[in-house]
């Protein structure tokens, strides 16, 4: 009996490890826009309310799991409708590489769509979990993802669902928290088409109407260049300046400004799939760095 129990435990543990690893394969390319930055905003709320260390550790861990579910739902739904495109643009993804079957991904998506709002209810952020699920359905099953405006709105409104939940996992939303959420929502909505520059070939193959394909790659690059060039003004005025003229705020402001100007240059001068992929990764890291700054600007 003891041997059977040990064997059963080992089997269960192996199954759990496999599911965690598989979920990581699905979400790993999106971690810089979801799990990492959102956890930074949870930490900012924890610091803001001076939460005791033990409670803070549990809250942050709860937030990490919430945003793991958050991005897992997105990537499952996104990759299920994008298999043919991924064969061209992202051949290492689990559904294309054979690490997961279509049927298996659909089963996991159903499970996540049940577990995620239940977990959100337990954390007191059910409305934001449901908002994210509604956006996911609009994006992946109602056609938003096939039009440039829908894609940008999905990303921008998704920032609200993400960051409002992140803050409320730890504390009630404040006007300062909303100032950050709205500023980043507008920024992401306007500039998120940078992700479509790297996928032009695959998007054209499946008939998706992204901004580069609708308005032209040259015009899109010019628009994004201007956006990244003037973006530091908004970030300084709405996010950094209200925290006061401390040296660490000024230093963060300079770093974010420098990175944004680098992106303005890259989006025009560095072209081609590998270069555009690198540019998008820098955008993700800019987003994470900005939210990491909320730890000491929202104290």
Automatic annotation (TrEMBL):
<keyword id="KW-1133">Transmembrane helix</keyword>
<feature type="transmembrane region" description="Helical">
    <location>
        <begin position="177"/>
        <end position="194"/>
    </location>
</feature>
<keyword id="KW-0472">Membrane</keyword>
<dbReference type="InterPro" id="IPR000537">
    <property type="entry name" value="UbiA_prenyltransferase"/>
</dbReference>
<feature type="transmembrane region" description="Helical">
    <location>
        <begin position="56"/>
        <end position="72"/>
    </location>
</feature>
<dbReference type="InterPro" id="IPR050475">
    <property type="entry name" value="Prenyltransferase_related"/>
</dbReference>
<feature type="transmembrane region" description="Helical">
    <location>
        <begin position="247"/>
        <end position="269"/>
    </location>
</feature>
<protein>
    <submittedName>
        <fullName>UbiA family prenyltransferase</fullName>
    </submittedName>
</protein>
<keyword id="KW-0812">Transmembrane</keyword>
<dbReference type="Pfam" id="PF01040">
    <property type="entry name" value="UbiA"/>
</dbReference>
<feature type="transmembrane region" description="Helical">
    <location>
        <begin position="110"/>
        <end position="132"/>
    </location>
</feature>
<feature type="transmembrane region" description="Helical">
    <location>
        <begin position="222"/>
        <end position="241"/>
    </location>
</feature>
<feature type="transmembrane region" description="Helical">
    <location>
        <begin position="32"/>
        <end position="49"/>
    </location>
</feature>
<dbReference type="InterPro" id="IPR044878">
    <property type="entry name" value="UbiA_sf"/>
</dbReference>
């Amino acid at each position: 009996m003891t041997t059977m129990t040990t064997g059963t435990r080992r089997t269960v543990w192996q199954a759990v490890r496999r599911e965690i690893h598989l979920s990581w394969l699905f979400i790993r390319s999106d971690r810089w826009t979801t799990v990492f930055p959102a956890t930074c905003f949870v930490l900012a709320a924890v610091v803001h309310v001076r939460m005791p260390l033990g409670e803070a550790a549990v809250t942050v861990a709860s937030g990490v799991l919430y945003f793991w579910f958050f991005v897992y739902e997105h990537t499952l739904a996104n990759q299920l409708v994008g298999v043919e495109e991924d064969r061209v643009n992202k051949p290492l993804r689990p559904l294309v590489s054979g690490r997961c079957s279509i049927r298996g991904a659909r089963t996991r998506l159903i499970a996540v769509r049940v577990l995620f709002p239940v977990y959100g209810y337990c954390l007191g952020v059910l409305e934001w979990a449901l908002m994210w699920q509604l956006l996911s359905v609009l994006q992946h099953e109602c056609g938003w993802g096939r039009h440039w405006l829908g894609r940008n709105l999905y990303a921008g409104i998704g920032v609200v669902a993400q960051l409002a939940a992140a803050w409320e996992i730890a504390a009630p939303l404040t006007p300062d928290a909303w100032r950050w959420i709205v500023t980043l929502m507008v920024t992401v909505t306007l500039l998120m088409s940078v992700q479509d520059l790297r996928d032009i070939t695959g998007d054209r193959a499946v008939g998706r109407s992204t901004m580069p394909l609708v308005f032209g790659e040259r015009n899109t690059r010019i628009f994004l260049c201007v956006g990244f060039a003037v973006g530091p003004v908004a970030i300084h005025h709405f996010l950094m300046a209200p925290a006061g003229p401390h040296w660490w705020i000024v230093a963060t402001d300079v770093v974010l400004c420098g990175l944004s100007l680098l992106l303005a240059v890259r989006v025009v001068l560095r072209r081609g799939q590998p270069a555009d992929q690198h540019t998008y990764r820098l955008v993700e890291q800019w987003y994470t760095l900005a939210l990491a700054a909320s730890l000491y600007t929202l104290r």
